[in-house]
Amino acid sequence: MKVFGAALLALCLSLGWAPGLEIASAQAAVRIKDVAAVKGVRENQLVGYGLVVGLQGTGDTLQNAPFTGQSLQAMMDRMGVNVRGANLRTRNVAAVMVTADLPPFAARGSRLDITVSSLGDAASLMGGQLLLTTLSGADGQVYAVAQGAVAVTGFSAQGQAESLTQGVPTTGRVPNGATVERELLNRLGEDGPMNLELRNPDFTTAVRIADAINAYTWATYRRRAAREDSPNSVTLQKPPGVGATHFIAEIGELMVEPDTPARVVVDARTGTVVIGQDVQILPVAVTQGALTVRITETPQVSQPGPFSKGKTVVTPQTQIDASQAGGSVAMVGGRSLRGLVRGLNQIGVKPQGIIAILQAIKSAGALQADIVIQ
């Protein structure tokens, strides 16, 4: 049986929205520290290559992963053990890549969480121990060293006729497994200007941030300290007599209302539709048809009579039914997002129908927003 279709639907909207959709919350003021960050104050990625030992026969096959064998030989040479020319067959060692994020202002001796990922054909890293591994940044300098027991959430089990794998047993974590050995040169400008970088660049948001900071500094220090330079940057001039850290902490708690562009984000795979607060639809009439076709195959066997020397054959029997559901016309009014959501919730359009309607309205020029399809 094959079923095609969806539902015939006619609706008049002056702004409506979708079934099963809910309004998360109205746009409200947020802290400046949640929408902007000081330029240069960011995390940095670290990476290193190492060996995990102590595996219970689930490590790399040295014939299939020759780099594991080379690393094992080099490590043994450094420890004074000569294994050159030996035919190594151990399955208790795995070559891994180690990654970590170095936060800003991380002091020497502070601890970091690290992620360990297998490079070869190891079946699992469960029970393994990461040996001392150096972690370098993009500049080639060593910023941390890592070592510790690998914690793996997944598992893998295999028998002669069946295997079972849950999660990803070839990736694990070592909580607090790395120690910072080199500090980043993160310094806030005590004398010169500082810059705030917006996480979502926008002209209106940058102006609102500068206005909020200037209103605060004028009331507190009798001077204006902010100037919007671009949609993603606001320049700050610290008032005299105030530390940079103290000043950033003060303005970070100020409240602003960020502005967002009118945008509709559509994920056709999951049927997810996200609509911005400022999305507007001009009055349009929309009809979505739904035709259901059922094809049923009931083959019959034709048996010849006795002594007729005939052949048994299968004769196809096909039945096709087509139905088209009637749709009621609903009037949806209002130019707000809340009215749009309420209207389509009452009609009962499914997510896939919403996506098709929005795309058609956009093509007609009535949707005053950008559609982003993922």
Mean pLDDT: 79
Per DSSP, the total helix count is: 6
Percent range for helical residues?
10-25%
Secondary structure class reads alpha+beta
User: What amount of the residues lies in strands?
Assistant: 35-45%
Question: Which descriptor suits the 3D outline?
Answer: flat
Largest sheet composition? 6 strands, antiparallel, barrel
Low-confidence stretches: 1-26, 328-334
- Biggest sheet strand line-up: 5-6-7-12-9-8
Compute the number of strand runs.
27
Give the CA-CA distance, first to last residue. 32 Å
Number of domains: 3
Question: What is the C-alpha radius of gyration, as a whole number of Å?
Answer: 32 Å
Pfam family, one: FlgI
Keywords: Bacterial flagellum, Cell projection, Cilium, Flagellum, Periplasm, Signal
Family: Belongs to the FlgI family.
Protein name: Flagellar P-ring protein
